[in-house]
């Protein structure tokens, strides 16, 4: 019997492999400088949250990689990062097979939440399981780095420092029981344009990751928000003055500091209890439509039992 999920109709339920693709927020994002390869040297503390896309994988004949999505706002061809991930998997393993990907999007698009990167990571983890290739997360992460700088973090999830262009990870074993209340203002922000807009005075030699990790290690939830910073925020706010105005409004109604994730435009406030998060959510729903309460998620939940460590 067909199973209806949003706009998707799943027919062969028995053969489908399911994966959840989690979004991330940046607790810190420092840029150390511009590199010769067009990327920037970054130092960031990344955190998975429980806002997720749902991904189903179904084996197909060799060379056939197809995708359908509940969102009309993303390409359903070779430009889709999930399709690119599948192509990379078959190329890397030499397996003569294909896959059909069904994507139920919940993570806002081009929002600074790594939605596409997380879909790509979930496809790589899922194909590793579907075809029994037994690759380690490290190997999958190296394959994923070809698709995007955020893919290696999304492969592991949880909490981590990401350096280099984002692919050099130090995993942090402390996940605080905290909440992030997200506000998505439905602006489309290009990550490349934001990085291009950085000026030398946006660069730093003293990133905030060490202080943030100490705070996480001490389980000092109240201490996290004052340490949050994002070097891309000035650029995105200058590009979209309405976003700076919205951030001021969010602070006024929540009475909490507001932060930007990645290259934006998603804004978030941190809460140490679900009650505090709910009050922020209620206040924000009065001024915005797209508001999400999310909890911090650890690597075990992101990865599950899907790949060799
Ligand atoms: C803003 C963040 O989301 C923070 O986590 C990431 O740094 C961006 O990760 P991403 O979206 O996976 O980025 P990619 O797809 O690899 O790169 C998109 C574009 O952003 C710029 N880019 C990205 C990462 C980086 N460390 N330096 C850069 O300058 C480059 O112009 C690149 O062409
Ligand atoms: N599976 C996918 N999901 C979302 N966007 C995708 C996907 N595949 C390709 N894209 C394209 O990637 C671009 C960035 O979308 P995405 O939602 O990944 O941005 P983001 O959250 O800002 O990512 P990051 O935080 O890694 O910079 C958009 O132009 C979108 O059309």
TrEMBL record:
Its EC number is 2.7.1.148. InterPro entries: GHMP_kinase_C_dom (IPR013750), GHMP_kinase_C_sf (IPR036554), GHMP_kinase_N_dom (IPR006204), IspE (IPR004424), Ribosomal_Su5_D2-typ_SF (IPR020568), Ribsml_uS5_D2-typ_fold_subgr (IPR014721). Residues 80-158 form the GHMP kinase N-terminal domain. Residues 222-285 form the GHMP kinase C-terminal domain. It comes from the Bacteria. Signal peptide: none annotated. HAMAP family: IspE. Belongs to the GHMP kinase family. IspE subfamily. PANTHER family: 4-DIPHOSPHOCYTIDYL-2-C-METHYL-D-ERYTHRITOL KINASE, CHLOROPLASTIC. Catalyzes the phosphorylation of the position 2 hydroxy group of 4-diphosphocytidyl-2C-methyl-D-erythritol. This is 4-diphosphocytidyl-2-C-methyl-D-erythritol kinase. The lineage of its organism: Bacteria, Bacillati, Bacillota, Bacilli, Bacillales. The gene is ispE.
